[in-house]
Amino acid sequence: MLLIIALSGCSWLGNEAQMSRLENGASKATIMPSGLAEPTFTELMPIPDIEDPRGLVGTRYELRRPEPLSTRYGVDQIVIKKLDDAQWVFLDIPPSVVWPKVVQFWEANNLDVIKADPGAGILESRWLTARAGEPEAVFQSIRDGNVFRNTRDVFLHQFKLRLEPGVRSGSTELYIEQRQVPADAPYRLDTLKWQGQSDDLVLEREVLKAMAYYLGENISQGTMSMMASSLTEGRTELIPDRIKPELRYKLDFNRAWATVGDALENANITVNDVNRTQATYFVHYTPSHLSKPGFFRRLLGGGGDKTQSVQDLYELRLEAQAGEVMVTVLQDGEFADGLAAERLLKVIKEYST
Predict the structure, then answer these.
(1) Among 112, 158, 235, 343, whose Cα sits 20 to 30 Å from the Cα of 285?
(2) CATH topology for 75-230?
(3) Residue 94 and residue 226: Cα distance in Å, rounded?
(4) Contacts by residues 138-146 (CB-CB < 8 Å, ≥ 24 positions apart)
(5) In angstroms, what CA-CA distances link 94 with 39, 165, 220, 251, 346?
(6) Under CATH, which architecture does the 236-350 domain have?
(7) Which residues contact 183 (CB under 8 A, 6 or more apart)?
(8) What does each C-alpha distance from 27 to 51, 67, 207 come to in angstroms?
(9) Long-range CB contacts (within 8 A, 24+) of 275-281
(10) Residues 171/165, Cβ–Cβ less than 8 Å
(11) pLDDT of 300-320, one tens digit each?
(12) DSSP assignment, residue 129?
């Protein structure tokens, strides 16, 4: 017993000393004895001024250990998403890991590259010949590369890939734009401009499906692109505040609305009602909420919310502003408690894809 107390005391004293050093900040600069030249001291790691939007100065918290970085990349983390006419491949994998595999896919499928900009996440193919037909047959014709321009019923196709950081931190989104012209059309191909949408959405989807399957088979073979590592800026940002914390999406409103809805479903947060006209989700959320209840909790009936207390009912309000969409949390028509609102927004951010 004495040994346990002694060890506990040493740990306690060590923590207090560490806390004291953290609170006192940087150590004082060394004073040189007189008669010696005094070098210029440079702060290599200056301590910044503390911004405290939550008003937490002086409060002590016990922080959990950070979650380990995931290095398991597989098919279950790669899906094709669709919203109206927009479609893309979502990967819960960083852009720097995805880029080399995308380049390999293009090379393996005869999509000859004429422009590659890993810093901007852009790939463009040359104009490729293919026989007219169903999208699957057209893509196979491009892969085979055995169709000549002077053949009948031939079209020229060009593809542009755009790789962007995903909504979730450390994820990636892949978009394809396809355009086509008849091989005998009197066009100057170098004057054609990309229109922002594919001429053939079904063919676009065929390429996305093939690329998603290829990445699912090959993404675990770890290679990274240093040039694509600059593509790290995510499209969600949580702004903490004591009164009005905000979750900001760098998306158009329709995509942000769908993203919040999917995040609530994936996080197992109960949605009581939806008002698209007022851009509001009405949800039930408790601080003890579990996104994925354990086996025994589900077995004993703890996987869902049986009763709902009024104090746990919130409104999620979306508002488009300056090219972004802001999400705020309200309760009874007023801003909800800042810390409770921030916890709810943090869960939504974590499950946004």
Answers:
(1) 235
(2) Alpha-D-Glucose-1,6-Bisphosphate; Chain A, domain 4 (3.30.530)
(3) 12
(4) 138/200, 138/203, 138/206, 139/203, 139/206, 139/207, 139/210, 142/109, 142/110, 142/111, 143/109, 143/110, 144/110, 145/110
(5) 44, 8, 12, 19, 20
(6) 2-Layer Sandwich (3.30)
(7) 129, 149, 150, 151, 154, 155, 156
(8) 21, 31, 59
(9) 278/317, 279/253, 279/317, 279/318, 279/319, 280/315, 280/316, 280/317, 280/318, 281/315, 281/316
(10) yes
(11) 444 455 677 888 899 999 999
(12) E
Tokens 């734009």 sit on residue: 177
Question: What are the residue boundaries of the structural domains of the chain, listed by start?
Answer: 75-230, 236-350
CB-hemisphere CA count at 13 Å for 270? Answer: 16
Residue with tokens 């301590």: 47
Rounded Cα distance between 34 and 31, Å, is 9
For 153-196, how does the pLDDT look when each residue is reduced to its tens digit (9 = 90+)?
789 999 999 999 888 888 899 999 999 988 887 778 888 889 88
